[in-house]
Specification:
Blueprint: E1 6-7, H1 9-14, E2 21-25, H2 35-42, E3 49-50, H3 73-82, E4 90-94, H4 100-111, E5 117-120, H5 123-129, H6 157-163, E6 170-173, H7 177-181, E7 198-199, H8 215-226, E8 234-237, H9 244-253, E9 260-261, H10 265-269
Parallel strand pairs: 1-5, 2-3, 2-4, 4-5, 6-7, 6-8, 8-9
Helix pairs in contact: 4-9
Length: about 280
């Protein structure tokens, strides 16, 4: 059986010694880029390897391509292969940030055409709540053989701009409501949002314990937000293409497949002062 959205702590515990499974720790803090490596060194799920959001899950920022541009497909596939991931590997990603970073890895693997990827539901907190052990031992990985295959495709800024005023685009912004409205912006140089976007804070996909809401609840909430738009008309974005992947995953859990990611997101959009900007709740 393969898992393509979520895995609970008990299921992961039963597969810790399964050579067909690779667990990836992607803990990260935007304000402290070294946090994840320190946290991993202090203790991680046994057998987990570490990938860094800035170095491994992102390409090099140029000032115009967003804060977390996509890595090169071939280079990223090679990075994953070096970590022991092959075409038949079940990947489980986790963080301690409510799935915000793990969702990025989930989407990136689907971008490479590798769908056997799931989040640890509830993250490291759920693992520890289930009395899961931690270790400081860094595993040795036998190289895998992952090759990029056709997968989900991101939306480019030029395509988004061209479709901005059309009814075939339903843009969803995953940032916090205050940042969406253009308030309390401390990360990007311009405050506001892309005109026409609606706001769905990624944390609204979660229950109070940090696990995802049931599929039926997510489906009802997302159908209400989409207001008749088809999933394939939906484009997700956030500040830099990270937390938006959480909303993509939520729609997948809800059975609403086909939405896409604007990977450059607000940080790329606002880097070009010629692109339109909106502020306020709409």
């Amino acid at each position: 059986m393969s898992y393509t959205t979520l895995v609970d702590a008990a299921t992961l515990a039963a597969h810790l010694d399964d050579p067909a499974w690779v667990v990836v720790d992607v803990r990260h803090q935007l304000a402290d880029p070294g946090y994840g490596e320190r946290a991993y060194a202090a203790g991680h799920i046994p057998g987990a390897i570490f990938l860094h959001c800035d170095r491994d899950l992102s390409g090099k920022p140029t000032g115009s391509n967003g804060r977390h541009p996509l890595p090169g497909r071939a280079e990223f596939a090679a990075c994953l292969a070096a970590a022991g991931i092959g075409p038949a590997t079940q990947v489980v990603a986790y963080d301690d940030a409510q799935g915000m970073i793990a969702g990025r890895l989930w989407w990136l693997l689907r971008w490479l055409g590798h769908d056997r990827t799931a989040l640890l539901d509830g993250g490291l907190q759920a693992w520890q709540a289930a009395d899961g052990a931690l270790t400081a031992v860094v595993p040795t990985c036998a190289a895998g053989s992952l090759q990029p295959r056709p997968g989900c495709q991101p939306v480019a800024a030029a395509d988004l701009l061209e479709r901005l005023e059309t009814p075939q685009l339903h843009l969803v912004d995953a940032r916090s409501p205050d940042r969406f409205r253009g308030e309390n912006e401390t990360i990007d140089p311009v405050a506001g949002h892309i005109p026409g976007a609606v706001n769905r804070f990624f944390r609204d996909n979660l229950q109070p314990d940090g696990r995802f809401k049931p599929a039926a609840v997510l489906r009802a909430e997302w159908l209400a937000l989409l207001a008749g738009a088809l999933p394939e008309e939906v484009v997700h974005q956030c500040g830099s293409g990270v937390s938006a992947c959480h909303n993509l995953l939520a729609m997948e859990i809800a059975g609403l497949s086909g939405s896409r990611l604007y990977a450059g997101s607000w940080s790329e959009w606002c880097a070009d002062r010629g692109r339109p900007v909106a502020v306020g709740a709409t």
